[in-house]
Amino acid sequence: MTSIQGKVRFGVGLGADTTPEDLPGIVDHLERSGADSVWFSELVYSPAVDPFIGMAYTLSRTTRLKAGTSVAILPGRHPVLVAKQVASLAALAPRRVLPVFGLHSALPAERDVFTVPPGRRGAVFDESLELLRAVLRERDVSFDGEFFTVRSADVQPVPTRPVDIWLGGSGPVALARIGRLADGWLGSFLTPAEAAEARRQIERAADAAGREIEPDHYGISLAVAAGEIPDDLYDMARRRRPDVDPTELIAADWPTLHRRLDDYLKAGITKFVVRAVGPGDRAAFLERFVGELLPRQN
């Protein structure tokens, strides 16, 4: 049996079909059940709750449940203001804030909302991360960059325990950025073999930068259907990853998800954000999530 490094944890990912009216019941159910976390996607043009608003609501309503973003877009936001949001949440709910940031929206229609100089999104991301991390760890930060300049930035309260900043992404540039600048990785639409290789690339980049990412700070977002992958999701996966059979990326049912989880665990992935796709009752999904996955936590 493969030795598992670190804690295996499962959280629920919320999609575009989760409305503000749905949120209280979901949060209360997950808090009662002992689920690890709930995750909010950046979906501007949908009824879904904004990720930072959703985290604040969840953390104020619970005492144990963690809340994260999967993922929030950083380039196009001022990193000092983002740091203030993260620091405030961490002060209100220590150790329960799980920010994950990405390069750009997966939805082309929303990319114009997060404006950066043309052709410089990656460079803006790198600089944003450097400034974000600095003001979350220090007082009186002065920073002179290509895109941001601040004098005596003093975000308070500085978290007593540093907040881990995770990143999404799966391309070579993204994985190198994670190794250089991030505390963890949350991937998506990758097979277990691809996730294993992504982890190795991140570890090599971290080593080259003189850094080390904790062994259990590698995660992936997964989708599970109620017996059959919906046609629209199948087609979307085919467009996003034309080189991979969508059935290798989306679990059609819970037995398939369990088999896939075994492979991800062997690949060194221990954090999982699981979302329901297709028609089905949300309450039934939450009950199934609790019954199927919480026993697999260690």
TrEMBL record:
Key words of the record: Oxidoreductase
Coiled-coil features, chain-numbered ranges: none
GO MF annotation terms: oxidoreductase activity, acting on paired donors, with incorporation or reduction of molecular oxygen
Pfam families xrefs: Bac_luciferase
Domain of life assignment: Bacteria
Domain Luciferase-like: from-to ranges: 9-239
NCBIfam families xrefs: F420_MSMEG_3544 (TIGR03854)
Name recorded for this polypeptide: 5,10-methylene tetrahydromethanopterin reductase
Organism for this UniProt entry: Mycolicibacterium goodii
Upper lineage: Bacteria, Bacillati, Actinomycetota, Actinomycetes, Mycobacteriales
